[in-house]
């Protein structure tokens, strides 16, 4: 039976691993599943629900067994009664993006977003960032007009005035910064740690432990290569965009990769506290069908293995 690993560019580690051939040494029958090639379900109502495509594919017959995402998808999975387990997390991605508006438009703080149109890639880490920021300002989801935007077109919508504010991420955010003066309403670092994370089904974790450990080991090796070769890694992303008919800047992609942490470590208590706070806020704002306990998705044995696989820091 082949092991199916999902990948897409937004999880930089898995996207590069797909191109490096490292995992194939341990799992010759690995099957790479491009999330973008799978049938896309209708978008969730951005005001009342979260998209569940990652967990749908994780538990679907033609999906994958293992996936890496941003902060929000595992919470969505748990909120829809999916039996997942966390595998690991990266370090904080505090330089990855921020909530911005065009300078001089009268929006000076998050509190000024009441009744405004705010663009996010709904269901990603951006939903959590915005919700945390709103809560800190004494606002809720119903106080704004959330707009679900693709990560590539949100900046253009901010520039033409369709959006009043936008959660942007690099490298796309760099192009918007070059076009207009932006005002930062909230950065990532002041709100939450925003790591990359990886998760799987509990039955896969328990029944295919050797394969799971092989994936973790390959990710560690590939991520070390990215850190040592960020420009070569950036080329994979640029070539992918060009092959799809678009344009991409190699320098911008290299800068984005240099600004992100690589390596997979065990889930921490601090991370789980952030996940629980996000889950509670999502449920309280009507975006999750039920309240959840994120620590139910922790397997200590996985954490112990991931910790052992972390590189030893040099003296």
Automatic annotation (TrEMBL):
Alphabetical list of InterPro entries matching this protein: SsuA/THI5 (IPR015168)
Species in which this protein is naturally found: Nocardia veterana
Protein name in UniProt: ABC transporter substrate-binding protein
Source taxon at top rank: Bacteria
Classification via Gene3D superfamilies: Periplasmic binding protein-like II (3.40.190.10)
Pfam families documented for this protein: NMT1
SsuA/THI5-like domain boundaries: 98-233
């Amino acid at each position: 039976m082949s092991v199916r690993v999902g990948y897409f560019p937004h999880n930089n580690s898995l996207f590069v691993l797909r191109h490096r051939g490292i995992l194939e040494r341990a799992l010759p029958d690995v099957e790479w599943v491009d999330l973008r090639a799978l049938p896309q379900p209708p978008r969730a109502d951005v005001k009342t629900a979260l998209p569940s495509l990652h967990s749908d594919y994780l538990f679907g017959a033609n999906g994958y067994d293992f996936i890496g995402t941003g902060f929000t998808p595992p919470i969505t999975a748990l909120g829809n009664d999916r039996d997942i387990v966390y595998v690991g997390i990266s370090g904080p991605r505090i330089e990855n993006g921020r909530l911005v508006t065009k300078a001089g438009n009268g929006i000076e703080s998050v509190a000024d977003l009441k009744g405004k149109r705010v663009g996010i890639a709904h269901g990603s880490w951006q939903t959590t960032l915005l919700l945390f920021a709103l809560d800190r300002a004494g606002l809720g989801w119903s106080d704004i007009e959330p707009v679900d935007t693709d990560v590539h077109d949100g900046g253009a919508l901010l520039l033409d005035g369709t959006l009043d504010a936008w959660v942007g991420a690099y490298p796309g955010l760099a192009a918007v910064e070059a076009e207009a003066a932006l005002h930062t309403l909230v950065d990532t670092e002041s709100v939450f740690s925003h790591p990359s994370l990886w998760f799987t089904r509990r039955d896969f974790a328990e029944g295919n432990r050797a394969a799971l450990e092989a994936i973790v080991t390959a990710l560690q090796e590939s991520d070390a290569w990215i850190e040592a070769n960020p420009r070569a890694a950036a080329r994979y992303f640029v070539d992918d965009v060009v092959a799809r008919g678009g344009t991409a800047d190699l320098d911008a992609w290299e800068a984005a990769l240099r600004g992100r942490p690589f390596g997979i470590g065990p889930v921490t208590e601090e991370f789980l506290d952030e996940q629980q706070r996000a889950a509670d806020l999502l449920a309280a704002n009507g975006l999750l069908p039920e309240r959840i306990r994120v620590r139910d998705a922790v397997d200590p044995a996985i954490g112990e293995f991931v910790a052992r696989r972390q590189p030893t820091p040099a003296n």
